[in-house]
Amino acid sequence: MQAQIITIGDEILIGQTINTNAAYIGEELTKIQIAVSKTTVVGDEESVILQEFKSAFENNDVVIVTGGLGPTHDDITKDCIVKFFNTELEMNYEVLEDVRSIFQRRGRQMAKINETQALVPKIARVIRNTRGTAPGTWIEKDKKIFISLPGVPHEMKEMIDTEVIPGIAKLYKPENHSIKIRNLLSTGIAESTLFERLGNISELLEGAKLAFLPSQFGVKMRITAEEKNEDLALNKLSEIEQKIRSLVGRYIYGIENDTLEEVVGRLLLERGLTIAVAESCTGGLISHRITNVAGSSSYFERCVVSYSNAAKVEILNVNENTIAQYGAVSLEVARQMAEGVKSVSGTDIGLSITGILGPGGATREKPVGLVYIGICNETLCTAKKFQFSEDRLLNKDRAAQAALEILRRHLLGIPYDE
Amino acid sequence: MQAQIITIGDEILIGQTINTNAAYIGEELTKIQIAVSKTTVVGDEESVILQEFKSAFENNDVVIVTGGLGPTHDDITKDCIVKFFNTELEMNYEVLEDVRSIFQRRGRQMAKINETQALVPKIARVIRNTRGTAPGTWIEKDKKIFISLPGVPHEMKEMIDTEVIPGIAKLYKPENHSIKIRNLLSTGIAESTLFERLGNISELLEGAKLAFLPSQFGVKMRITAEEKNEDLALNKLSEIEQKIRSLVGRYIYGIENDTLEEVVGRLLLERGLTIAVAESCTGGLISHRITNVAGSSSYFERCVVSYSNAAKVEILNVNENTIAQYGAVSLEVARQMAEGVKSVSGTDIGLSITGILGPGGATREKPVGLVYIGICNETLCTAKKFQFSEDRLLNKDRAAQAALEILRRHLLGIPYDE
């Protein structure tokens, strides 16, 4: 069973709006094991829309269209549906009531033009819209389903959740067939190194699929298992996950939508430890991420963004001579910053970072992208050198991610290497 | 002249990644007046990709493909290009050097598999990638252009900006027709209030178009003017911009891709002023944003993220009794934090924030979303109350934006009101 998603609207075509609708629908269809064969975006032009309807309906079992259902002249999806299915529009009085009540609820006068929202293709079943004036429509023909929904995300989502997905799932019960997905999140290792360490991939996968999705935060490994039933698929996933973890487990910090700040937050809580942070080059990003986690105040005490040398000396007790001798971007200063912030805050752990993220600030010995990350607890105080690349903002992301990963490995006693 | 954008990757099809690449390319093509006829997403499957290449290349003058260029088994775009154009791969030694130097720069061992990145279709011109290992390719055939780029957004963007758009623009010059777009960025005012203050919109626009695009950072106003030539379109834009500024100019902090942190950074530099920040609820986000701007070290001295009361007292000299009397989230504490961070840092300005961003921490008198922002200079020390909403992360964004806007208005002498 496969589906195509069609998004209609010039806004999306010219990039003023990002197509989040297609992502949402794609994810929901995948969950009920309808394979998305293709996603397309077309503008508000009849001939193009009709052509897209044709090829989509020919090649798929399910077609879901969003957008182009407003009451104004530039919305033509409904007319295209009427032409494509060779039907006509008729007034649906239930929908007309829905439209009127929406205006009533908002205490607004209803412009006459909104009545056209209640005109629906004769052969369609209506999908009611409780959040807006454009109804959705559900057409079945030649054992295929053609669905049209409004483009406003929260209206579309509600209709997808309550009507569309349950409706499709009822008609298409996958028999002898189950697809399950698991995402493993790694960091601190390059995609190609990960690939090499996994060795013989096809042997490891035994027919399942593995995708590597790299970003500045690390590499996501997405495993997809397709089996005769759910149990088998889940077993297959677990088996492969185990194998992957046995080879590169130390680099895996979480699964699915976990964030590294949540993971280290949980570890700190479990161990009853507190932390303070001293940041230079990342400018507060590490602290920002740690405090994105609700409840972080139980383990996060403070952060000092010591952008100037004076701040490093005054608040963090970094030795002026050390800065003079080694420079502010050095292993020694990173160590002193971590020690300093821990000691002035009275926390169990001090985490620090200092570096040159560009575009300026580089010297002959110290290129853009050079970063030192320090970490101290009661008994140990250490720092590590990193070399990132040219882009300031990406470097910030990479450096903050590396610092949080250093913290995670510290908490778990995993050495940091690649 | 028209173009199609093809995005390749299962992760986008199944909604694990949102298709921001197509939006970016769509926007850039629109700027040089290449009409985007269609955007499609297809998975990592050869037959589907080849079919999409065929229909796209038949129906358009320009085809831009992103994704599927990684070194691992699931990346097949390059093989599809070779098949589609009936050519073959050959080693490009310039690219091989690029790939090697990327690993060298990062101080990492290069896995053998990465050498395949330097294999490019024989008939293609290479678009070099300074940020990653996958080169882009530019193929011209039958007076049409077929471009392939990596899917990693920052790599793709740089290649679009420096090679692809200039290259296409040189080949295709539009006649008797010019569309120009201008975006005005406002903050601290609701969409509906903005709309009301603008009065009679159609009179104001004289045939141009205006869209309101709200987010947690403010409302973007997008003006689109379509005229016979570029000068006329630009004049129309300037005219409308002037009218809008005369009505709601105080809320407009920038245009196009300006960020509020860049705007305040420029103002601080111009005035030769320095700043220090004391954050509680935003956890370092304000400081992170200020330091996103290259060169911010000339005006940004330090930030203290005083998440605990102890940090407020110890580093910022906030009076313990004030905290006991009014609570850490209060006008008085915000003022003392701003004064404290200014005085310990010796800067011209101190900016502070304290609040309850949720989900926990609320009391009967102090609901989630309550925030106080303080600002002090040599002669004045003031604070202002804000009430945001429920969502922790959105609240962080809103609160940091409000603090930077307070700073902007302070620097420009514009009172903060709505």
CATH class of the largest domain in chain A: Alpha Beta
Distance between the termini of chain A: 42 Å
What's the CATH architecture name of the largest domain in chain A?
A: 3-Layer(aba) Sandwich
CATH superfamily annotation of the largest domain in chain A: MoaB/Mog-like domain
The number of helical elements of chain A comes to 15
The pLDDT mean of chain A sits at 93
Question: What are the salient characteristics of this protein?
Answer:
17 strands; six-stranded mixed β-sheet; five-stranded mixed β-sheet; 15 helices; 41% helix; homodimer; 418 residues; Alpha-Beta Plaits; Maf protein; alpha/beta; 3 domains; 25% strand; Molybdenum Cofactor Biosythetic Enzyme, Chain A
Précis, in short:
Two copies of one chain form a homodimer. Chain A has 418 residues and is α/β, with parallel strands linked by helices.
Lay out the secondary structure.
Two copies of one chain form a homodimer.
Chain A (H helix, E strand, L loop, with lengths): L1 E7 L1 H4 L6 H12 L3 E8 L3 H14 L2 E5 L10 H8 L4 E3 L1 H13 L13 E3 L3 E3 L8 E6 L2 E6 L3 H19 L6 E9 L4 H7 L3 H5 L3 E7 L2 E10 L2 H19 L3 E4 L4 H12 L3 E5 L5 H6 L9 E6 L3 H8 L3 H7 L4 H15 L3 E7 L14 E7 L4 E7 L4 H21 L6
Parallel strand pairs in A: 1-2, 1-3, 3-8, 13-14, 13-15
Antiparallel strand pairs in A: 4-5, 6-7, 7-8, 9-11, 9-12, 10-11, 15-16, 16-17
Description:
Two copies of one chain form a homodimer. Chain A is of the alpha/beta class. Chain A folds into three domains: 2-171, Molybdenum Cofactor Biosythetic Enzyme, Chain A (3-Layer(aba) Sandwich), CATH 3.40.980.10; 178-255, Alpha-Beta Plaits, CATH 3.30.70; 260-412, Alpha-Beta Complex (Maf protein). Chain A has 15 helices and 17 strands. Chain A has a six-stranded mixed sheet with strand order 2-1-3-8-7-6, sandwiched between helices. In chain A, strand 10 and strand 11 form a beta hairpin. In chain A, helix 2 (20-31) runs parallel beside helix 6, helix 3 packs across helix 4 (77-84) and helix 10 (260-271) packs parallel to helix 15 (392-412). The longest helix of chain A has 21 residues, at 392-412. Chain A is elongated and about 85 Å long. Chain A starts with a strand and ends in a 6-residue tail after the last helix. Strand 14 of chain A pairs antiparallel with strand 14 (300-305) of chain B, so a sheet runs across the interface.
